[in-house]
Amino acid sequence: MMSVKRFVMSSGERFAVLLNSDGVPMTYPNLYTIIHLRNRGLSINTITAILEDIKLLFQLLDKLGIDLEQRIKSKDFLKLNEIEALVNLTSFNRSRLSGAASKTKIISFPKSNNKERARAKLVVTQDYVSKQLIYRRLTNFAEYIGWFETYLHSSAITSTKRLLKSRRPRKSTDIQSEYKSFDSDQLHKILKAVDPDNQNCIWTSDYITYRNELITYLFLYLGCRKGELLNLKVTDITLSKGGTSYLTIKRNPHDGSDSRLYQPLVKTRSRSIAVNQNLKKKLETYILNYRSTIPNAELTDFLILSNKGQPLSINALDKIFYEISKAVLFNVHAHAFRHTWNDKFSEKSQLLVATGQTTEAQVENDRAYLMGWIPNSQSARRYSRRAENKRAVEICLGIQEKFEDENE
């Protein structure tokens, strides 16, 4: 079976290769990875995701009886019906493609009265992937095949890349559906669940309990990403006794001191963020009273550690929020804190704009800096549109209320 293997070079750089069923690196996919991906400075996570899609491409072509390398070498490029067949297979999940039984989900409808003995049920198959994943797969299929055709036949005229890209589903433009943040009640429940003084504490270890509370507050107060939090080091914290304390988020993709094979990455720009007294106190308490008690903690500078003194992994971080989700009975994931932070930022900045203390343009520049985006970033604009939509909804409701009052 083909596989994607990650490894760490002596320089500390993480890289990945695609292996065939015999465990031998595949020539052209890995050449593409080096020329087209690594040399462009793409992250190891992006490279791995693309290689996984290329692996899937070969598996689908195998199902269709197509030897891509031989076909391209002989200038027998994919035909329209073959491209259509490939596109159709792209919408299925990997389990279905591997021949596993269909996954089903049973949706039960509530009883309309107590005399009913059975509920109506709807069985829904879960064999298909999201439009976003189909879009990504077809993009990576098109880019690889287009590169392969051009690499072997630089003067050849082929439409494979264009045809594959033309069959990608349209990207969603619904901001509301993609936007998830916590409301005040949810935040209260989360913070109560992770409070070390809570009698119904989720975790039994004092270290893990205090560490996980700190993680929650770092996400909430800084709006940072998972990779940013897991890359924080004790040396990145400047705690001032009298003035403002700062925490610095740094990009360091090939950190030789990071022992994690799946190194969490900082996708955004480096920046320094001020921390208030509450967060400063939590950081001091964690470092001096809890982190210092963990075996091997003195061997690494990373701030967030496992109970064995190793830098915490992404999977371990995800498990923390899975456990919190079970305790509060709703889904809690790290990125929702980033959305919540941006909601609060929009609320605060709108007040400052309304009182003439700042401008809309400066607000977006400030947001971009604090989130680690480049100035005029589309990511910053997405969050500001969310605030604008909320403001438009409030105006719309106000107009409706005005009509109600006038007609009474």
TrEMBL record:
Keywords recorded for this protein, A-Z: DNA integration, DNA recombination, DNA-binding
Domain Tyr recombinase residue range list: 177-397
Domain of life, source organism: Bacteria
PROSITE patterns, sorted: TYR_RECOMBINASE
Keyword DNA-binding among UniProt keywords: yes
Keyword Metal-binding listed: no
PANTHER family (alphabetical): INTEGRASE_RECOMBINASE PROTEIN MJ0367-RELATED (PTHR30349:SF41), PHAGE INTEGRASE-RELATED (PTHR30349)
Family from the record: Belongs to the 'phage' integrase family.
Descriptive protein name: Site-specific integrase
Source organism: Acinetobacter corruptisaponis
Phylogenetic placement of the source organism: Bacteria, Pseudomonadati, Pseudomonadota, Gammaproteobacteria, Moraxellales
